[in-house]
Amino acid sequence: MICKKCGRKYDNDMPKCLWCDAPNESLSSQDGDDTSTADSETQSEAHKESLKKIVDPELEQAFNDNVQRGKSAISWTKLQIALNILFFFVATKTFGVIANYYRNYKVDTPVPKDVNLAVWTLIVFFFFVAIPFSVFIGKNLLWFYHAHKAQNKFTETYFTPWGATICYYIPVVNYFVFKSLLENQHETLKLLGIKVKAESNKLLTWFFIFNIATPIFNYFSFKSFNTAVLFTSTLLWIILTVLYIKLIRVATTNEQAVHDLLENNRINKKVEEIIAQRETNQVL
């Protein structure tokens, strides 16, 4: 080691120069880094402990409200499965008739009764499902928006609540917004000291696959009006919908765990305040 003050040489592990007593800056720097790292780790642990004891009635209520939104979204999504099955039977009775008429269409040819019946059947069906379908969409988007909004209280997410909501039904992109939400939720649960079962990536992987396959088969089903293709498309839609339900259920379970912790913290704090008040009264 060469002393920067007097220019003389001494051993690297010496705390200061043997000749002029100047401190060994390399050792001082290492000590400072070790101290800084230790302080950082201590602060991190303190932050984790404070999170485990967090009391926030508004946040607690927000998580509780969104758990209920998630359950409602699941119920309406299950209804959508029934409507998809009903649509398959309606489509098999109407699409082929209408397509066959237009393939053989001739000017001034009167519209057959079976074609008119098929068209009106589709009109009545779409009118019938318009309201439940709109509610189904709205329930899912509302839950997803608030899920990201509540999660942002703990972690910084790549998607904003509105950005994630817009991407909710965009094939492939919705895989990434769900993945981001679940990963951030899992990280939050670990910070809060909540033991949760690690979710398998298989669910997200299948969600990704069916997000690609379903629109493709849907396109061919409307193009060919083939019953087999239409059946396959309907089956894929049902599977994709079931995967949506499973993902919502996982996310709401995580939200429920956070809510329960916040509720327990609030109750424990209230009990501690009552005990402290009684002890104060006894002293007086």
Structure characterization notes:
By secondary structure, the protein is mainly alpha-helical. The chain is 77% helix and 0% strand. The chain contains seven helices and no strands. Helix 2 runs antiparallel to helix 7 and helix 5 runs antiparallel to helix 6. The longest helix has 57 residues. It is elongated and about 110 Å long. The termini are far apart. About 6% of the residues have low confidence.
Key terms:
284 residues; mainly alpha; 7 helices; elongated; 77% helix
Shape: elongated
Low-confidence stretches: 28-44
In percent terms, what proportion of residues is strand? under 5%
Radius of gyration: 31 Å
Order of helices and strands: HHHHHHH
Secondary structure layout:
Blueprint: H1 25-52, H2 57-103, H3 113-151, H4 161-166, H5 173-191, H6 202-224, H7 227-283
Helix pairs in contact: 2-3, 2-7, 5-6, 5-7, 6-7
